[in-house]
Amino acid sequence: CVVFPKMGPEELIPNLKESADGGTFKTKVLKPMSDVTQQDVLEALPPEFKGGQRSMAKLCLQARDVMLAQITQIVGEDDLEGRQLMAQYLQQCLVD
After folding, report:
1. How does pLDDT run across 5-19, given as a tens digit for each residue?
2. What one-character DSSP code corresponds to residue 61?
3. DSSP secondary structure letter of residue 3
4. Which residues are paired to 20 by β-bridges?
5. How does pLDDT run across 17-52, given as a tens digit for each residue?
6. Number of alpha carbons in the 13 Å side-chain half-sphere of residue 95
7. Most buried pick, 19, 38, 45, 59, via CB within 10 A?
């Protein structure tokens, strides 16, 4: 979480509306705090921040990895058929 000071209606970081007038920018790093690296933080920040590397492609890859981990946790690592059925169901949900 980045909290910006109240300095007026202008954005302190161009094109980042949260940086105006004491706003707050929130992001998430989906790891235990003890495992978070500086690279993880930079990847969680949009390019408007100096060094920020977040992109839609990286967000999609993270969402995919989280989803696959959840499928494995719910269905089980050894149940290939169950994992395939769950993946097909979720694909159809995204299409709908």
Report:
1. 888 788 888 888 888
2. H
3. E
4. 11
5. 888 888 888 888 878 889 989 998 898 888 888 888
6. 6
7. 19
